Amino acid sequence: MRKVFLFMDTIINKVDAKGRVSLPADYRAIVKELDSEIVCYRSLTAPCIEGCTEDLLEKLAAEIETSTDFFSQTQDDLTNLVFGDARRFTFDSTGRIVLTEKLLKHAGITDTAIFVGKGRKFQIWNPENWAKEEARIRSEVMKKRPVLNTQKSGGEA
Amino acid sequence: MRKVFLFMDTIINKVDAKGRVSLPADYRAIVKELDSEIVCYRSLTAPCIEGCTEDLLEKLAAEIETSTDFFSQTQDDLTNLVFGDARRFTFDSTGRIVLTEKLLKHAGITDTAIFVGKGRKFQIWNPENWAKEEARIRSEVMKKRPVLNTQKSGGEA
DNA sequence: TTGCATCCCATAAAATACCATGCTATACCA
DNA sequence: TGGTATAGCATGGTATTTTATGGGATGCAA
């Protein structure tokens, strides 16, 4: 039995004409062990699909409810945005989910998708876009790293 | 069996001359599993119909009753409006509810309706109006998001 | 009896569950 | 350590079920 439930690794899978993709086996295992379901939505910040367990969304719902007023405009906007876009995805006996046209379009995915672990969440990218994004992130980190170090000690590398 | 009961996704359905609409299958599943019923009322804040399970309204009522400190006059008025306007909608064997003229008029719905998940609640819009509303919300959030981030750390694209 | 509302049936389309296969990664044994 | 057997996984195809939706029948009320 697993102790830690985090989405990790980067896995490429094919997307067929129906939009079917195998959810990486390890992701499936997590969802099963948590006795939860997958929820996907369009990322707000990047051209990719984002996914998490339904449990996490449930927590988010609770948080929105407690931190904003029942009749407030903010609660209205937030819930519309989050839950209006999200959708449950149950996987079949072979471990596949069927992504919607809306999601695939937003991520620019046609016949191949790449799953990127993000801990409690994961993302699904068009592989080419992800390659660029990963490069950007890595260079970004390298740019920031010396700055952070200088502040603390004296800089390195 | 489902653990989490949240209305999600955005689904377009037709409204026939009798005012009949199919409640999205997933919404029905939630209502059934909660062994509850659908309640709809005119949204107080937007030109749309709002719906939730009877259970939620029950909770709201209970909260008002048990709340020690008196509610403000406005809040009281709001709850009056909601409960006064709300009505049960049972769906038939094919999963349809019959919306009233009053509700349809308030939302400007004629032959097509779009269901928007909001977590514990959902909304029913005229598709065109919803398109505008969604755009408004997205731009609103994009404006606010950087602000929220700057307060915490240093902001991000 | 007539109008209105509810219920039931039929059908086409779409979503989803199932089956089969080849491949890959893992485990096992010499 | 190297080779082989095994189990798990991704993937293509097919069958079945569910869902949306139009039309009609039934029952109640005015």
Give structural notes.
Two copies of one chain form a homodimer. With 157 residues, chain A is of the alpha+beta class. The first copy, chain A, has one domain: Chemotaxis protein chec. The first copy, chain A, contains five helices and eight strands. Chain A has a six-stranded antiparallel β-sheet. In chain A, strands 2-6 form a two-stranded antiparallel sheet. Chain A starts with 9 loop residues before the first strand and ends in a 5-residue tail after the last helix. The structure holds a DNA duplex (30 and 30 nucleotides).
SSE diagram, text form:
Two copies of one chain form a homodimer.
Chain A: E1 10-14, E2 20-22, H1 25-33, E3 38-42, E4 49-53, H2 54-67, H3 73-85, E5 87-89, E6 96-98, H4 101-107, E7 112-118, E8 121-125, H5 127-152
Antiparallel strand pairs in A: 1-7, 2-6, 3-4, 3-5, 4-8, 7-8
The structure holds a DNA duplex (30 and 30 nucleotides).
Task: Spell out the key features of this protein.
homodimer; 157 residues; alpha+beta; Chemotaxis protein chec; two-stranded antiparallel ribbon; 8 strands; 44% helix; globular; DNA-binding
Helix count of chain A, per DSSP?
Answer: 5
Q: Biggest interface and its residues per chain? A: A-B, 29 and 30 residues
CATH fold assignment of chain A:
Chemotaxis protein chec
Largest sheet of chain A: 6 strands, antiparallel
Give the second-level CATH assignment, the architecture of chain A: 3-Layer(aba) Sandwich
Specify the helix fraction band of chain A.
40-55%
The ordered string of helix (H) and strand (E) elements of chain A is EEHEEHHEEHEEH
